[in-house]
Design goal:
The complex is a heterodimer.
Chain A (H helix, E strand, L loop, with lengths): L2 E7 L6 E8 L3 E6 L4 E5 L4 E6 L4 E5 L7 E5 L3 H8 L12 H32 L2 H13 L11 H15 L9 E5 L6 E3 L4 E5 H6 L3 H16 L2 H20 L4 H8 L4 H17 L5 H14 L15 H9 L13 H8 L20
Parallel strand pairs in A: 8-10
Antiparallel strand pairs in A: 1-2, 1-7, 2-3, 3-4, 5-6, 6-7, 9-10
Chain B lengths: L2 H10 L5 E2 L3 H17 L5 H14 L1 E3 L2 E5 L3 H31 L3 H32 L1 E3 L2 E5 L3 H17 L5 H14 L1 E3 L2 E5 L7 H28 L8 H38 L1 E3 L2 E4 L4 H17 L5 H15 L1 E3 L20 H6 L1
Antiparallel strand pairs in B: 1-2, 2-3, 3-4, 4-5, 5-6, 6-7, 7-8, 8-9, 9-10
The chains are: A alpha+beta, B alpha+beta.
Chain lengths: 364, 362
């Protein structure tokens, strides 16, 4: 059994008494010169002070006692700690260094993620299988009841397909564009993964010219060109990994829909791409500008968010950007009069799912 | 034959405190405290302070036994809350009441209340100094025996206000008298267990250390005032500024600042003399003290500490704290030793909460 020489202070006076201390199984056995034996159970032992390499340690029988025992000798604290591991928790700097190292690691990981995430995202986008991308996009268009039903007017769809091909010709798109029309009366359009672009009937009925439709379509193809849908999907997946790991399961669809709204940078990129595509197709961006202007007029009087808070750049700014642009020489109409009528009738015969009350302007 | 002589020579060798502690550990403690204080919007600072004190107290030992700090973070927190609600809140209310009275034309009562508040603030400042020491000594132990600060906070506060008045009337030249009276009151009421400290010293010999830097300081204020007067004259309102005179004025202010710095450096020699006097005038149950420290050393020490903290942006702060402990250990001589068997446990009442006034007013 370990034995140590120590000094015992009885808490009644400042005089110390030499003692022999042995570490028993569950207590300190303290024997004074006059034959007094003290028994301090490990369970209540209080660490008063330990210094440096642990060559001196002061303990008390419990936290409230005035009694003290000073033990001195090389490695004394280590020996005591081996017998009473719980004493380690009472060390003043217990776990501090460890905690600081952990905090440092967390900060380093966050910085690494922050810096490395865009690189990782680009990598995932590059290797993401086209068939997955296509299937996810198709499901997103077809399974959302809020967008209404599929419109099947063959001539109209063919006209829109032709327009999409005309716009994407020579653009070097990562995926071919497939145009869908859904019967919702909401004035909106969106692009999802796999090159799937959906126009809502509300938008088509609202449009005053085929050039407006062409403009909106070009904007959505711009998203496709920059692979925004897949990038946002990866962001959502990343956020879900974090959210799920923190709070358990969370409604996946809600987050997905919520996150499908693109950020300002994405919109600006898609706008710029749209201008290029419309010029190359010989249509010009005046139609898209008209559409933005009309949206701006509709918005007037009901400013739900300030321009700063909205994810989209202000419509007036976007339309001004379009108009500042020189129209292409010898502009041709986006659609023939016949095609235009076919497009306007594309949802005829499909029962309306009126969602106008939602009134969300997600025109993007 | 020579044995008795040798023994007496050995007995003459002074004892000293021993300072230890590890700067790295203390830094980890401070960083953790800072982190948790930020996370808890400041609440954790009482526990941070408590942990730092526990570390510092136990880094200082006498006769191989460390000092202990037994205070709790909760005691400081409650002390702070009590003062916040019982002193700061009513005082603020009274202040706004006085302000309202002044605004509404009750000038005499308003001014009386406002003056009362300001005098009360100074009184609370003095009381805070004493209450802080009462708490800290009550939470200080050595060999399990408690220290204590007796006396009366009211008496100390009265003494503090009296010394403040003297300082104002004498343009600061009452400093030696004030320091000896205020520190003396504390030392005379300090206890370790059943043993009591006593202090007796004359303030007059300290005057010769104070007069020169004190006069230099006063002169620097006069020079700076003159400089500002010249600046004021050189740029009359609505007129064109006389740039030559303007720069002369700024130059005079600069010279005044240099004189002030010289005076402040000179004060280190006064401070060292004060420390020597305080140590030499103190006894404890037959034990005498000395603190042979010179102004030059104190000056180098304080300026060195300030530079360390500034250059390292507070990273070196834990080492500065340990440097202070080492200076105390190296400087304070303990002549003789008390009869430890005769020093019993201190039985005075201990304050239950601590340092609220200090938190609010110091």
């Amino acid at each position: 059994m370990h034995q140590f020489q120590g000094t015992f202070y009885d808490g009644r006076s400042a005089i110390g008494r030499a003692c022999t201390v042995s570490l028993e199984e569950d207590a300190l056995d303290i024997r004074l010169a006059d034959g007094t034996v003290l028994w301090w159970p490990f369970g209540t032992l209080a660490l008063i002070s330990e210094e440096g390499d642990g060559d001196r340690v002061v303990v008390a029988p419990d936290g409230r006692s005035d009694e003290r025992l000073t033990l001195q000798g090389a490695g004394i604290f280590r020996a005591l700690l081996a017998a009473v591991p719980a004493l380690g928790d009472q060390r003043l700097t217990h776990g501090y260094r460890k905690a600081l190292i952990v905090a440092g690691c967390i900060v380093a990981v966050l910085v690494l993620v922050w810096l490395g995430y865009p690189v990782v995202k680009d990598g995932v986008v590059a290797v993401f299988p086209a068939s997955w991308s296509d299937r996810i996009g198709r499901e997103m268009v077809e399974d959302q009841a809020m967008f209404g039903k599929a419109c099947t007017g063959e001539k109209g769809l063919a006209a829109l397909d032709g327009l999409a091909r005309r716009l994407s010709e020579g653009a070097g798109l990562p995926e071919p564009v497939t145009v869908h029309v859904r019967s919702s009366s909401e004035v909106n359009a969106f692009a999802v993964t796999g090159g799937h672009v959906a126009l809502l009937d509300g938008l088509i009925k609202d449009a005053k010219s085929p050039e407006e439709i062409a403009g909106v379509l070009a904007h959505e193809i711009g998203h496709v060109q920059h692979r925004h849908p897949l990038k946002r999907l990866i962001d959502v997946a990343g956020i879900q990994v974090v959210v799920t790991s923190i709070s358990g399961d969370v409604g996946a669809v809600g987050t997905t829909i919520m996150m499908l709204e693109y950020g300002r940078d994405d919109e600006a990129q898609a706008d710029a791409a749209a201008v290029t595509l419309l010029d190359r197709a010989g249509i010009g961006s005046a139609g898209l500008a008209d559409f933005f202007d009309r949206m701006a007029t509709k918005q007037e009087g009901k400013p739900r968010f300030t321009a700063f808070l909205r994810t989209h750049p202000p419509l007036a700014d976007r339309s001004a950007m379009m108009r500042a642009h020189e129209p292409p020489a010898g502009a041709r109409p986006a659609l023939t009069e016949r095609e235009w009528q076919d497009v306007r009738a594309v949802c005829d015969g499909v029962a309306k799912t009126d969602r106008a009350d939602r009134g969300r302007d997600r025109a993007s | 034959m020579s044995l008795p002589l040798e023994q007496s020579a050995v007995a003459e060798l002074p004892d000293r405190l021993k300072a230890g502690g590890d700067g790295g550990n203390l830094l980890a403690l401070h960083l953790m405290g800072l982190l948790l204080t930020m996370v808890t919007l400041g609440i954790y600072r009482f526990w941070w302070r408590t942990n730092a004190r526990r570390y510092l107290w136990s880094s200082l030992s006498y006769k191989g036994d460390p000092f202990e700090y037994t205070g709790k973070g909760l005691e400081l927190f409650l002390g702070f809350l009590i003062v916040l609600f019982l002193v700061v809140a009513p005082l603020s209310g009274l202040y706004f009441f006085g302000y309202w009275l002044l605004k509404s034309g009750e000038t005499v009562i308003g001014i009386t209340i406002m003056a009362g508040i300001y005098i009360g603030m100074f009184a609370l400042f003095g009381a805070a100094i004493y209450r802080v020491m009462v708490y800290r000594l009550s939470r200080t132990r050595w060999r399990g025996i408690r220290a204590a600060l007796g006396g009366s906070s009211w008496r100390y506060t009265g003494l503090y206000l009296w010394c403040l008045l003297l300082q104002i009337v004498t343009l600061g030249f009452a400093a030696p008298y004030a320091s000896i009276r205020l520190n003396g009151y504390m030392l005379n009421n300090a206890w370790f267990g059943s043993g009591r400290f006593a202090f007796q010293a004359d303030w007059k010999p300290l005057m010769k250390y104070y007069v020169v830097p004190g006069a230099i300081q006063l002169a620097s204020f006069a020079v700076m005032a003159w400089g500002f007067y010249v600046v004021h004259k050189a740029s009359p309102e609505g007129g064109t500024a006389d740039y030559g005179m303007l720069w002369t004025g700024f130059g005079i202010v600069g010279v005044g600042l240099l004189i002030l710095i010289a005076g402040l450096i000179g004060m280190f020699w006064y401070s060292a003399a004060l420390l020597r006097t305080l140590a030499a005038g103190t006894t404890f149950e037959g034990v005498r003290f000395r603190a042979p420290i010179g102004g030059g050393r104190l000056c180098r020490f304080v300026i060195g500490n300030a530079l360390l903290v500034i250059v390292t942006q507070y990273i070196a702060y834990p080492w500065v704290q340990l440097r202070i402990l080492r200076l105390v250990a190296e400087t304070l001589e303990i002549h003789g030793e008390p009869d430890f068997a005769a020093i019993a446990q201190n039985t005075s009442l201990q304050p239950r909460f601590g340092e609220g006034l200090g938190e609010a007013f110091l």
